[in-house]
Amino acid sequence: MGFKIIIESWQPEDGCQLVFPQGLVGIGGGAFRGCELPEELAVPQGVAYIGERAFSGCTGLRRVVLPESLERLGEAAFEHCTQLEEVLLPSQLRELPVALFQGCSSLRIGELPQDLRRIGAKAFMNCRSLECANLPDGLESVGERAFSGCTALEAVRFPDRLLELGSRSFFGCRALDYVLFPDEVDALGEQVFKGCHLLNVMEAQEPLRGKLLRQG
Fold first, then answer.
1. H helical segments located in the chain
2. Cα(143)–Cα(169) distance, rounded to whole angstroms?
3. Which candidate among 49, 94, 190, 213 keeps its CA 20 to 30 Å from the CA of 33?
4. Is the pLDDT of residue 136 over 50?
């Protein structure tokens, strides 16, 4: 039986490079927190989980590629990676945890995983370079403040299966002027679009069925 390797911590020395060992299956909580890492990071195939705050505060990161083997991401795993621009997520990932990319002010994420079911609270909070949120068809829940403070966000398309929008999930998205709702939303939290001054807010008594909100 082969060994399974888990990285729990890493203390870089001057001039050293990060090379992931063969057989790596997990990266522990806070393992690389605040470390100076290369601009591009590719987590190797075989890694099944990344712990809480594993790469939090790695301000030199610009691009991250996560493997298809990844099953679980810990809370705030990449929070406050302020230079991070792009993350390639595995296609089968079903949940983005709390505060995953909170404070990643340069992030312009591309496609979200098609199997994604839930976006956790504050997952993209204060991602001030994010311009568009094209949410996947299978998404069912967007957590509280998930996109709060995304001041460059202009357009959001909600999938038909969406059941819940958490409170203040788009609070302060002041550039947002285009929202397409699905046929039905079971739970709409408080102040979802508060501070979205360009958006025409519908009256509360109107049903959320195929509604298009747009300035003008």
1. none
2. 6
3. 94
4. yes
